[in-house]
Amino acid sequence: MERMTGQRREKLISILLHGDGWITAAALADRLGVTPRSVRSYIAQINARAARADQGEAVESGPAGYRADRAVLATLRGEQRASPRDRLHRLVRELLDADQGLDVFVAAERHHVSDATVEADLARIRGLLEDTTLSLRRGGSVVTLDGDEISRRRLVSRLAHDEMEEGTFDVGVLRRAAGLETVDDRAFGPFTQQLGAELAALGYYVNEFAAADVALHIAIAADRVSRGRALETTRGEADEDQRRLAEVLDTLCVRHFDVAMGSGDLQHLTSLVLTRVVAPGGAAEERVRLDPTVEEAVRTAVTRAAHGYLVDIAHEDFIRRLTLHVQNLVLRAREHAPSRNPLTRSLKSDFPMIFQVAVSIASDVGEQLEVTIHDDEIAYIAMHVGGRLERSRQAETVLTATIVCPGYYELHELLHSRIARSLGPSIEVTEVLTGVDPDWEAVDTDLVLTTIEPPQPDERTVRLPPFLSEGDLGRISAAAARRRRSLRLARLRAELSRYLSEDAFIRPLVAADEEEAIRALAEPLVARGVIDQQYVENTVEREQLSSTAFTETLAVPHALRMTASRTAISIGIADGSLPWGDSRVQVVALTAFSEEEREAFQTVFEQLVEVFSERDSVTRIIRRGEGFAGFLDELAAVIDG
């Protein structure tokens, strides 16, 4: 039986715990980069461990695949957390506290491993320190961690985040991962809540996502101070806002963590809060001066994105708010301390177009201000963009409807009124037909809401009684959702038929990494003169900014600038899956867009991601679409439903 590594076990368990219903062996194999036979072996190992612990079956198997018993699997996972990564993190925490250094032989004995294992762990720790100001110094068998206290605290935070599930804030896991022996778990929640309340009272909008992250940093600071590792120095004179916030933090740290912070720690933590947790609002916003350099960079980036992607974001209020955010973002980037965002993955997969606009803005801002902006920070920019676009996006989703209700007293008026009152602006009734024999062929609205049977019902038709129940309103909403999707995908099918071609279809796509896949898919487009080599290099650079793996199956690499001579798409399908960033994908769609056809970008980009986000659709397209003709047929069949 094939043995699975600790990392692969963690990923498999995470997929099963977060999966919705049954997951096939093939789907699990694709995501793990192994064979279905290996998956069956791994499941057997997990169930064997659960049986030995008298916990029952952790993963149920059946004709539809596998499904987790969440309670059993979560318990088993907690009991099996001890792993090479756990030992590595414990070793880092020991180095952090060992002022005179750590003896390799003593560490090996304490961890019950060989000297060679500890040496291998030290090599991995050096890798962890590559992007920091920390370093390891060796003297015989003694290893010492060199670096300032702030960098040490950031390393503790990184260890904690490495063990946290995406989008969660498990205090027990966090406290253990960070080694916070002096901090009470129960203090986190009340501390974070009261910090938010105090910040709101001072006139700030609170970023609740970042508040939990900053609570971690403050808890780490409290733990380090209690161990005699306070920050002694301060930089410059604090202004009024900083002094008020420092008083709040001082009070809350004593109340919840039983630690009195010194001036150096309070200044550092005040800076963390001001650059991560809050956005100025009301009077506080007026007190914040916009940095002219940052404002110009944001204005340029927003204007370019608005033109390039045809989105309505170039407004002064939006530019000001985003500039306030970017000012803090730049400070975090220059300190190599990005703010975590638990919604990054869901924003990327559910709103790919919004995320793409955010990537464009982040790229321009980063280039102008000479900072690197990571995915989590791009996700915060996407939240700003999404908030601005929400109103116009809602307007675009309004469907027109015709009510067919033969007149009897005011029945048609009551029906019209109830629909308008209950469904609001999402459906606009443009015509009411009261005759018993309407001209059905002349009805061209998105929906037909009728109390009589039409001669040929279609997907637009919703048959209703004269007096609507809640269930009837639900059926109208469901029909509207199906119709919106149908209209979107119909546009996609029309676009794809123009942009796909047999010479730009590669199956199997074989590549060791993202860059190799991009270059292979670009070759037929370069040969046809659709793109040049510079476009290929720009696509590789775009991939380095933020992974274009928008779903668990699909990557859509593309350049930020639409410089293709005409729009075209090159499709590659791997046998199994390919590594792509932190994920694995099976389908890669290299998209090349021209400036003249940039209106097609939103249609193709968002809807292509939508189609390939549905596991059943992907499985059908991949299994049945062996050649180019078969791929087109299956893609069309999925789009047509």
From TrEMBL:
Keyword Repeat part of the UniProt annotation: yes
Residue spans crossing the bilayer: none
PRD domain ranges (all copies): 289-395
PTS EIIA type-2 domain residues: 498-638
Protein name: BglG family transcription antiterminator
A matching Pfam family: HTH_11
Protein keywords: Repeat
Gene3D superfamilies linked to this entry: Mannitol-specific EII, Chain A, PRD domain, Winged helix-like DNA-binding domain superfamily/Winged helix DNA-binding domain
Domain of life assignment: Bacteria
Matches recorded under PANTHER family: CRYPTIC BETA-GLUCOSIDE BGL OPERON ANTITERMINATOR, TRANSCRIPTIONAL REGULATOR MANR
